[in-house]
Amino acid sequence: MVLGRILMPCLRRQQEAELKLVEEETAKRVEEAIRKKVEERLGSEEIKLETERQLEDGRKKVAIDIIAQLEKEKEDAIIEARRKEEQAEREKEELERLVEQNKRRIEEAQRREAMEQQRREEERYRELEELQRQKEEALLRKKQQEEEERAKQQKLLGKNKSRPKLSFALGSK
Questions:
Q1: Which one, out of 71, 76, 116, 133, has a CA that is 20 to 30 A from the CA of 151?
Q2: Which helix (H) or strand (E) holds 151?
Q3: pTM of the entire structure?
Q4: Residue ranges covered by each domain of the chain
Q5: 166: which DSSP letter?
């Protein structure tokens, strides 16, 4: 009995160890079998073709995605270029409008200045005419006055027979 008690745990441990070895060996064999099956399947022509097909599909999808992205970027660039062109056109039109407006203002200012200059010149001309007329009138009055003065002197001096002759006689009657 003592021997049985000692042997029993040993046997049990031995059985457990053997069972563990069997389980490990079985797991290794199953793993190896699965690995071989996978390699066989992966090595098969059907799997190779499927893999190639999936790779090709993936490449096509990537190419399509890249082309779509490039098209989108191209459209965005065209839209942006058009927007910039329209903006530049609006700025150009605004600038032309401002230039035209400034041109009209300058022309109007020049026209007003020319009219003012003409008005001043006409006023100056009228003033000069008035001065000339006054000088001529003064000269004419002076001439008339001088003629009247000369006529008086001639009358006093008896020239041009404008004075009556007086006779003085000395003698007896």
A1: 133
A2: helix 45-157
A3: 0.39
A4: 15-142
A5: -
